[in-house]
Amino acid sequence: MRKPASMRALEELGRVRLSPNFFMRDMLYSEIANFHGIPNVPDDPDLAIAAGRKFCEELLEPLHATFGSVAVRSAYRSPAVNQFGNDNDLSCATNEKNRGRHIWDQRDAGGHMGAMATVAVPWFTDRYETGTDWRALAWWIHDHLPYSSQQYYPKLAAFNLAWHEKPQRVISSYINPKGVLTSPDMDNHTGSHAEWYEGFPALAKG
Length: 206
What we know:
The protein is α+β, with helices and mostly antiparallel strands. It has one domain (about 5-195). It has helices at about 5-15, 25-30, 30-35, 45-65, 80-85, 95-100, 120-130, 135-145; strands spanning about 15-20, 20-25, 70-75, 115-120, 150, 160-165, 170-175, 180. A six-stranded mixed sheet has the order 3-4-6-5-7-8. Strands 1-2 form a two-stranded antiparallel ribbon. The two termini are about 30 Å apart.
């Protein structure tokens, strides 16, 4: 697919189904792009679609099947949108760091494909707001899904969730306790962490 050069072509890109419950259009909305008038359109739609399908099929669909709706806060970012966000302190990492992450249509420095989105899980948000520890969801995802990274934020317990061809399997947070929760070199990385998410639903297949 060529880069959309018209509204109709962008409309067609938005109709591409990434998985049973998610379309490309769900992934293109950006407050930065909307407010500042910067098109959030991939240069390489085929790569963006391929990465998005893996992300949705392997991560978002299991979350949707298990917990219900998943709110996508920020998913795909064009290099122009991401660069503007970084230059203006709008919570965007550099383009170099976001290739193969929020910038789905560019591979990372190692040539690997990846995709990231900032999401919130309303089922968990309700529990977080009444005192459930953010680590409960983090460990549930760690034990059940093939993620590459998770990074948690205080508002809504939203988190960056990433799929990658070469997953890092790292969890970090801006919610107390802040910092890295686990990574492959830490003693807590392996084994079951079920004591953290007692009462959570079992993994459901969509």
